[in-house]
Amino acid sequence: RDLHSFPTRRSSDLRFWSTNSWVQLFKFPGLKNIQTRRIWLTHKSSSPIDNNIFNNLRLFTIGLNGYFIEWSFETLLPKYTYKNNGGAIWDFKIKNKLCLLAYDDGAIRIIKIKKNEDPFIVKQFEKTRSKILSLCFENSTNNIFYTGHSTGVINKWDLKTGNILTTINTNQNVKKENEKNLIWTICSINSQYLFAGDSNGRLLILDMNVGNIFQEINEHKGDILTMSFNNNLAEPIIYYSGVDSLIGCIKYDKKNNNFVFTSSFRGQSHDVNALSLIDNNILISGGNTTDICI
After folding, report:
1. pTM for this model (two decimals)
2. 236 pLDDT band (50/70/90 cuts)?
């Protein structure tokens, strides 16, 4: 199966690679004053009938300039853009035709994505009191999602009602007094465990059944910016990295009912901003340097 990778550069060029041959197929030229922060590549349907894979793909990006963009594979230019007065968009996730946008003004805005239609805004949840830097859907359900904030707070939300169900403060045991954690990245592997990487180099494992920090792993010397995990919920493996460019790996220890740090490696010399695990056996990293590590 021919997989594809979509790294972005500081120029905001989007480059399309084949992970079978590691050949760059083409690129979307960057736009002026567009700083791409996140990319999402999705299929229009689960069983494409068109032999041309590009006819079945949709590509979305968000940036700190506040633009949500869908790109055209025909023109290699934006086909749809959305922007409001919420400021920077720090993160976004797409699931079941819904796109959640995390804004600098503390709001979650939701865009509906339908097949063969332009995206359109459907609702906005009540603003929180801090920047929303990261978000993720709960991996095992469709109606729950989480947000990580610039105040060290993590919220659990009900997608249907827009209500906050649980709030967890992660500012305990920070390295610097009176300094708030920035929750740069979060991911959910099931309904119980949520993982969060913060600006103090901590990987926090939260037990969402009881609403507290279950475990801390302190193997990094700088902000943790990105995570990726496998799809084996019985034996989860989480990879994470950030400012110190060290990629750490943790696994679940059934015997002791905890997570253990198993290994680390470094492929790049500067910040790692993105990790992607493909088919559970290919880990790709990209960051401030011009290389991509596999």
Report:
1. 0.91
2. confident
